Amino acid sequence: MSQEKIKTNANVAVGQQLTFTAFGFAWYAQEPRTWRSAISKQQKSDAKLLVAFMKLFLSDGFVLDTTVPDYRDRVLTLGKHAEAAVLEFLVQQMITSRGAGAVMKHLRILHRSGVLNAKIERHQRLLQTTAIRDPAPRHTQDIFEPVV
Questions:
Q1: Which of 21, 29, 31, 10 is nearest to 85 (CA)?
Q2: 132 phi, psi to nearest 5 deg
Q3: 51 with 107: CB under 8 angstroms?
Q4: Left, alpha or beta for 15 (phi > 0: left; psi -120 to 50: alpha)?
Q5: Are strands 132-133 and 62-63 parallel, antiparallel or unpaired?
Q6: Do 146 and 120 touch, CB atoms closer than 8 A?
Q7: What are the pLDDT digits (tens) for 88-132?
Q8: Which sign, positive or negative, has the C-alpha torsion 141, 146, 147, 148?
Q9: Residue 138 CA, distance from chain mean position
């Protein structure tokens, strides 16, 4: 694992796109964890929302154990897998956005329209099993409800 600093909103140059993987990595592997860090409430909220959207696309669930030596590598691998799944889904929806902010905007719209209902329901079922073991605080894990 490289020792490069993962970019956060505060240090991304104008015109650069921040990837989902960077958000996911910062959420789970950067110290202090994003949910405990001294960033603005808006940045925490955006990170929580984007990571929650990413988790909807991990169809088999995921297990993150902070005690294993390759934890950070696993976080990065999961983030890349989720990012690929999200982008593939967006292409199916005729959306070509790639940057984290634009993608989050589209995912919010898709959520409000009910397009993500099946993914949300599957994720909620997985949360009730051992298929998902998430070290993040419980209040950050199940934030979406299906839209009626």
A1: 21
A2: -120, 120
A3: no
A4: left
A5: parallel
A6: yes
A7: 999 999 999 888 889 999 999 999 999 999 999 999 999 999 999
A8: negative
A9: 15
